[in-house]
Design brief:
With 264 residues, the chain is of the alpha+beta class. It is built from nine helices and ten strands. A hairpin with an 8-residue loop joins β9 and β10.
């Protein structure tokens, strides 16, 4: 499978540089550092504005804040934390990169031991995501998620598993070389939506009693499985909470501008 065949959602975190020998995937720490660097631009710019417009001791204070924030944001902006899948050495490891310098490798393990799991999204069960070594990447539709899973499995010889056809149980994702991701995803959908066949009616009283007892047990087991497989969406999703903070930088910038205009 070629890189150009991947969906656009997957190409955001899968870069073609180094493929098929090596792939560097951003971790949670990588996104946290980038987010802190972006959020830190607001106090840096406001302090720089105050250092230019004010006089005396206040100007010295804001100049000190600028000197303190500038190297911190520079380090956070250039810091990269990646999960590396290396084909030549058949190893998986986590590596830190700063100013283009690669630090020592950590959490080294063989590539076949990498967890590659196709499953439902944690926030929307109509969407699907890929879990790769405790890192979750949202993909979208089942066809796209299956395509990305097969790409990782074929490129790095990683055993792929799925949690779609028999949730919450995990099974091996078996796909032939001639099978397309669309055929594989339709197969998963069929097994997921497959109905349980009914039992034949027996008119004997003794067999009817045993059948009733067995059916009640089966019903209890199915009810337990349904309760275990039931998905309860969280009340406060992280995306909703982050949206509440979207206007905050603009309000702070507006406040600094009004304060500056009031001193004129």
């Amino acid at each position: 499978m070629q890189y150009s065949q991947l969906p656009k959602q997957a190409q955001r975190f899968i870069r073609p540089e180094g493929l098929p020998k090596q792939l560097r995937l951003a971790t949670k720490n990588h996104y946290v550092c980038r987010g802190l660097a972006i959020l830190g631009l607001l106090p840096l710019l406001s302090s720089l504005l105050m250092a230019v417009t004010l006089d005396g001791a206040q100007q010295t204070l804001y100049q000190f804040v600028v000197v303190l924030l500038l190297p911190v944001l520079l380090i956070l902006g250039t810091l990269k934390h990646h999960l590396v899948l290396d084909n030549p050495s058949k190893q998986r490891f986590v590596q830190l990169q700063i100013f283009g310098y690669h630090c020592q490798k950590a959490y080294q393990a063989p590539l076949p031991s990498t967890e590659l799991l196709l499953r439902h999204s944690s926030y929307d069960r109509s969407q699907y995501e890929l879990k790769l070594d405790n890192i979750v990447y949202p993909i979208g539709s089942l066809v796209d998620a299956t395509q990305v899973t097969m790409f990782f499995a074929s490129t790095f010889n990683i055993p792929a598993k799925e949690q779609v056809s028999d949730f919450p149980h995990i099974h091996n994702l078996i796909a032939s070389s001639t099978e397309t991701p669309l055929e594989t995803s339709s197969k998963l959908n069929k097994t997921n939506n497959q109905a349980i066949p009914g039992t034949k009616t027996v008119f004997n009283k003794q067999t009817a009693k045993t059948q009733n007892s067995s059916t009640t047990k089966d019903n209890d087991n199915t009810d337990k499985n349904k309760q275990a497989a039931a998905f309860v969406p969280p009340l406060w999703q992280p995306k909703v909470i982050l949206r509440l903070f979207y206007p905050l930088p603009f309000l702070m910038l507006f406040g600094f501008i009004m304060k500056y205009l009031g001193t004129l």
